[in-house]
Amino acid sequence: MSTYKWEPIARSYDPLKAGSIDGTDTIPHDHGIVRAMQAEYKPNRLVVGDPKATVFVGRLNPCTEDSSIKKVFSRCGKIKNFRLVRDIVTGFSRGYAFVEYYDKYDAVKAQRELDKTVIDDKEILVDAECERLLPGWIPRRLGGGLSGKKESGQLRFGGKERPFKKPILPFNMRDRKEEIDNRNSYKEKNLYYSRDRYSDRHVPYKKSRHHD
């Protein structure tokens, strides 16, 4: 028996909890969470540099040039490395970048002072580099990630922008082994989702072998 200790910011990444506004869900509620739970993701070993001195820059305008981003982030310190992620086929910006400073305290300063800065008419997101700092990290393209837009229907909690809300009632984990077994069963089974007739909520069901 163990007790769940609530914290607003996740110390490790759990797709099931990241999909819950207070981090207490035990059943996935959207397709993305199921995909993230089934994913076997490993951080890119080719990425170099100090993760503590690196910041993630998201929600960039696709038209924003490298020089514009560097100019803004150089306000917080001397930049060591910069990478604007581009599509390998088209070469177009994918809307996010990584900035590494010489000093990790400059990275902290950038997260604090440059988050929500507007560049080329787009409000950007500045956060820590989660891939190498958050154990168990699953990126957005595999159903994980943090934050997100309401319009996407796949919000993720436990990060700076969308921290976990405190549960209304204390959440006691009944049995850790039972919880792990439940998660594994979702990974092994082929889940199907249908739209509930009376609400917008997705509910899981097993595909029947029989027809009416």
TrEMBL record:
<dbReference type="GO" id="GO:0000398">
    <property type="term" value="P:mRNA splicing, via spliceosome"/>
</dbReference>
<feature type="domain" description="RRM">
    <location>
        <begin position="53"/>
        <end position="131"/>
    </location>
</feature>
<dbReference type="GO" id="GO:0017069">
    <property type="term" value="F:snRNA binding"/>
</dbReference>
<protein>
    <recommendedName>
        <fullName>U11/U12 small nuclear ribonucleoprotein 35 kDa protein</fullName>
    </recommendedName>
</protein>
<dbReference type="GO" id="GO:0003729">
    <property type="term" value="F:mRNA binding"/>
</dbReference>
<dbReference type="Pfam" id="PF00076">
    <property type="entry name" value="RRM_1"/>
</dbReference>
<keyword id="KW-0694">RNA-binding</keyword>
<keyword id="KW-0539">Nucleus</keyword>
<dbReference type="InterPro" id="IPR012677">
    <property type="entry name" value="Nucleotide-bd_a/b_plait_sf"/>
</dbReference>
<dbReference type="InterPro" id="IPR035979">
    <property type="entry name" value="RBD_domain_sf"/>
</dbReference>
<dbReference type="InterPro" id="IPR051183">
    <property type="entry name" value="U1_U11-U12_snRNP_70-35kDa"/>
</dbReference>
<dbReference type="GO" id="GO:0071011">
    <property type="term" value="C:precatalytic spliceosome"/>
</dbReference>
<keyword id="KW-0687">Ribonucleoprotein</keyword>
<dbReference type="InterPro" id="IPR000504">
    <property type="entry name" value="RRM_dom"/>
</dbReference>
